Every structure is written in structure tokens, then in C-alpha cells.
């Protein structure tokens, strides 16, 4: 055997080993288990379940804040203690104090909550008690024409967002009705976020939220539906797809993770075999790590000592706004340079403040933070992240997301990827920031899945009649 031939064979063997051996070792050392049970009964209400009546009623209501609460808010805003910024500093140390002062003044003197109430009540609001807590959701159900099918889609937000993130998307989904189907749209609030009651017991994590939302869809009479999520919404809807795949027509995510990307050999595979555009998502590694450290401080606090920071943000509206709005600035591609932020190129002051108001008026910032603590203190959830998802999946990859996964890695977690879209712009709050891109991607995903379902049924019919 010549030297060239030997070298070529050697390179092939090494290359295959780099890919195959880590997979085999991983499967041996960390075998994939079964998904958590959907039927697990959990009680998140006050006291003991046996002391409460079983209540399945669904109650409609309108969002409305008392004049006393609004007056208290304005008084608190007027007494905010501001601090001076450093000379020559913009957003490097966190939110720009000068911008906070400007935002608070607008909030106190120009922001019209009553107008925002009208906008929020555009779609009907409901609450129903599930597992001991009141769960809030919006529900749009169209009149179905002859020949049309109803396609329900559950849209789940994350932190520090809310159901309000989807307001510019909902009318786009409504108008996407075809002769074959029309969308029914359900936007819940995660328990402990905004208008959904907070769990009264420790341990509430994404699978618990998934069980509640599965029960919600069942209570609404939906046996087969689509689910969409970003941030915690991604974790919750992925949990639903693992626990209850028979009821999920498709799963659409705008942030997604796989367990494979944490291993060093996975990075070696990427460096050797991935296209350059995929490598840029994770290399240089030092840049990615620096970004995660720079943007992950909140995560560490909320996963370890959420109550310590919660009291301050629960007591001060300006402090709450500063804490939340900074995330919208840093995670949405609003930066025009390393330091300059053009936040209002992505969101208006009214939009930012309405999202903050959902937390302020419900005093829910503390309970929203707890989801980080509960998730990070459940070892079995890390094992669940390795379980493959078998339902049809659509993934929207926005360029300014907190972290991005190379396309070749996603197939280790998502076994039936129907659509993978690399977006031209947009970040973490995709539905809020880029409603057209977001809605169009969801609509295209649904169209593809529905065509596959029709084709599969036709094939099955053909086989039975043959």
C-alpha cells in the first residue's frame, strides 16, 4: 500500500472515529431514558387537594386596573431615586441610567394604560383552575366555514416576556386561514407569570407547566393541535411534545437546544466537518463563552437566589422596568456597536412598558424568577433534554438569539425536522420584534405538516384498498 493510499485511509478512519466513537461512548455512559409521565398528578394550589372542590369552569374576564393602583404607580415613579451614569458610558454596565430616567418620565406623564387595556382586551381573556391554580389564557376561535378544519395553535412565551408578545402575530395567523383550515389561537400565561396564579408549592418546572397546558387544551376540547414556544416556552412545549406526542400535530420553536453541543468532541466534529456558516454559530469558542458570561448573570441569580433580587424589583416600578427592559435591549440585536443601543428601533416605549405593567400589576416578578431555580435543581430534567422529540418540528434560527445551534446538531434531538429557517434579522423576542418573519415561518411550517398529513392519509387509504 502506497504512502498516499495509507494516509488517505488513515484520515478516513480517524474522521469516522471522531464522529462515531463519541456517540457510542455517550450512549453507553448516558443512556436515554423514558420521557416524564403526562399523567403525573400534581397539586400546586394552597393547602391540600382534598380540601378543595374540583372546578373545571372557564371564566371570561376583562383586564382592568383600579384608579388607586394607577395612582400608586405614578406616586412611586415620582419618588424614584436615580443615579448618575459614568462619563462616556452608554450600556456597557447594564441599562443606561439616562434612558431609565427618560423611560420613567414617559411612563409617569405620557403612557396611557387605559389605552393599553383596550388593546389587551382585543382578544377574549379567560381563567380556569387547573391543578389548584388559576391559569390565564387568551382564546381566539373563528367561525369555521363549510369544508374548513379548525387548527388550534398554542403559543407559549418566556421570561421576561408575556402573552402580550404575540399580539402582532395573532391577526397574521387569523388572516392566514385557507379553504381547508382556520387557526384557533390559544395564548396562556405561564403559571407565576402575569395573569396566571403562581404555584404555591416548590418544584414547578417546565414539565409541570406542560402538564397544565395539556390539560388546558383538553379542557378546551382540542384533541390535535400545534404548539409554539421560545425561551421557557420552548422548554415547556418541548416537554409537551415528549409527554404527549399523540396530540401534537407539530412543534415550532424559535430557540432550541440539544445535549450534544456541550461535549468537547462535538466541537471538534464541527470544526472538521461543518460548513463555515454553521461554524460561525459556535466559533470562536471564547467569543461565545464571553457572551454567555456577559448575558447570563441574571440566570445564575435567578437559579440560585431569586428571592434576594425579587423584593427590590417587586417594590420599585423603575427598578422592575430597568431589569426587564435591559434584556429586551441586549437580546434583540438592538446594538449598533459594542456599546451603543438603539432599543426603540425594535420596540416602542408603549410596547416595553405594557409588558412591564403585566408583571408590575400582578406582582409576579418573584414567582416568574422561581422557574429558573426549580429547573436547575431538578437533575432528571437534564436527562430529559437528551430524549429525542419525534413529532414534526419547525425551527426558526434568528441571528441575534442568545445562543445558536449549528444545523447538523439539531437532528440528534429532533428526529423529524420539517423546516429549518435561518432568519435575516431578529433576536430573542422574535414574535414581538419581527412579527411578519415569525408568523410567516409558523404558517409555512403548518402548511408543510398539513400536506404531509394529507399525503400520509392518502397513502394509507391506497394501501388498504389495494
UniProtKB/TrEMBL annotation:
Active site: 231, 372, 428
GO cellular component labels: endoplasmic reticulum membrane
GO BP of this protein: epoxide metabolic process
Pfam families in alphabetical order: EHN
Catalytic activity: 1-(4-methoxyphenyl)-N-methyl-N-[(3-methyloxetan-3-yl)methyl]methanamine + H2O = 2-{[(4-methoxybenzyl)(methyl)amino]methyl}-2-methylpropane-1,3-diol; cis-stilbene oxide + H2O = (1R,2R)-hydrobenzoin
Subcellular location, record wording: Endoplasmic reticulum membrane; Microsome membrane
InterPro entries given in the database record: AB_hydrolase_fold, Epox_hydrolase-like, Epoxide_hydro_N, Epoxide_hydrolase
Residues covered by the Epoxide hydrolase N-terminal domain: 58-166
GO molecular function terms noted in the UniProt entry: cis-stilbene-oxide hydrolase activity
Keywords: Aromatic hydrocarbons catabolism, Endoplasmic reticulum, Hydrolase, Membrane, Transmembrane, Transmembrane helix
Enzyme class: hydrolase
Entry annotated with the keyword Chloroplast: no
Transmembrane regions: 7-30
Protein topology in the membrane: Single-pass membrane protein
Family indicated by similarity: Belongs to the peptidase S33 family.
Name assigned to this protein: Epoxide hydrolase
Species name: Desmophyllum pertusum
Gene: EPHX1
Amino acid at each position: 500500500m502506497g504512502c498516499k493510499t495509507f494516509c488517505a485511509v488513515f484520515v478516513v478512519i480517524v474522521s469516522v472515529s471522531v464522529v462515531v466513537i463519541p456517540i457510542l461512548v455517550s450512549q453507553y455512559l448516558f443512556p436515554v431514558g423514558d420521557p416524564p409521565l403526562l399523567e403525573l398528578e400534581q397539586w400546586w394550589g394552597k393547602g391540600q387537594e382534598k380540601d378543595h372542590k374540583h372546578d373545571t369552569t372557564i371564566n371570561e374576564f376583562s383586564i382592568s386596573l383600579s384608579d388607586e393602583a394607577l395612582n400608586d404607580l405614578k406616586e412611586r415613579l415620582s419618588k424614584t431615586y436615580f443615579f448618575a451614569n459614568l462619563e462616556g458610558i452608554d450600556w456597557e454596565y447594564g441599562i443606561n441610567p439616562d434612558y431609565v430616567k427618560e423611560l420613567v418620565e414617559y411612563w409617569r406623564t405620557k403612557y396611557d394604560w387605559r389605552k393599553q387595556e383596550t388593546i389587551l382586551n382585543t382578544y377574549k381573556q379567560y381563567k380556569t383552575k387547573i391543578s389548584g391554580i388559576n391559569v390565564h389564557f387568551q382564546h381566539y376561535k373563528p367561525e369555521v366555514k363549510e369544508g374548513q378544519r379548525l387548527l388550534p395553535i398554542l403559543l407559549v412565551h418566556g421570561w421576561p416576556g408575556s402573552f402580550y408578545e404575540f399580539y402582532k402575530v395573532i391577526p397574521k395567523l387569523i388572516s392566514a386561514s385557507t379553504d381547508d383550515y382556520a387557526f384557533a389561537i390559544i395564548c396562556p400565561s405561564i403559571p407565576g407569570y402575569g395573569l396566571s396564579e403562581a404555584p404555591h408549592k416548590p418544584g414547578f418546572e417546565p414539565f409541570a407547566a406542560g402538564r397544565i397546558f395539556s390539560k388546558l387544551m383538553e379542557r378546551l376540547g382540542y384533541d390535535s393541535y400545534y404548539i409554539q414556544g421560545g425561551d421557557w416556552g420552548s422548554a415547556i412545549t418541548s416537554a409537551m411534545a415528549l409527554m404527549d406526542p399523540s396530540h401534537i400535530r407539530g412543534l415550532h420553536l424559535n430557540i432550541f437546544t440539544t445535549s450534544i453541543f456541550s461535549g468537547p468532541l462535538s466541537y471538534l466534529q464541527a470544526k472538521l466537518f461543518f460548513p463555515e456558516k454553521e461554524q460561525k454559530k459556535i466559533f470562536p469558542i471564547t467569543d461565545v463563552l464571553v457572551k454567555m458570561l456577559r448575558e447570563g448573570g441574571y440566570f445564575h441569580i435567578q437559579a440560585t437566589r431569586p428571592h434576594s433580587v425579587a423584593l427590590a424589583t417587586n417594590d420599585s416600578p423603575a427598578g422592575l422596568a430597568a431589569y426587564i427592559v435591559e434584556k429586551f435591549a441586549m437580546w434583540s440585536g438592538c446594538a449598533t456597536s459594542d456599546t451603543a443601543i438603539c432599543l426603540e428601533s425594535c420596540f416602542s416605549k408603549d410596547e416595553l412598558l405594557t409588558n412591564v405593567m403585566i408583571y408590575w400589576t400582578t406582582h409576579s416578578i418573584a414567582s416568574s424568577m422561581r422557574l429558573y431555580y426549580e429547573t436547575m435543581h431538578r437533575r432528571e430534567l437534564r436527562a430529559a433534554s437528551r430524549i429525542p422529540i419525534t413529532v414534526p418540528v419547525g425551527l426558526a434560527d434568528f441571528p441575534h438569539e442568545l445562543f445558536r445551534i449549528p444545523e447538523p446538531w439539531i437532528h440528534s434531538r429532533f428526529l423529524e425536522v420539517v423546516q429549518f429557517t435561518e432568519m435575516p434579522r431578529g433576536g430573542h423576542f422574535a414574535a414581538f420584534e419581527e412579527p411578519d418573519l415569525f408568523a410567516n415561518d409558523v404558517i409555512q411550517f403548518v402548511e408543510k405538516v398539513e400536506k404531509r398529513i394529507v399525503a400520509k392519509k392518502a397513502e394509507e387509504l391506497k394501501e388498504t384498498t389495494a
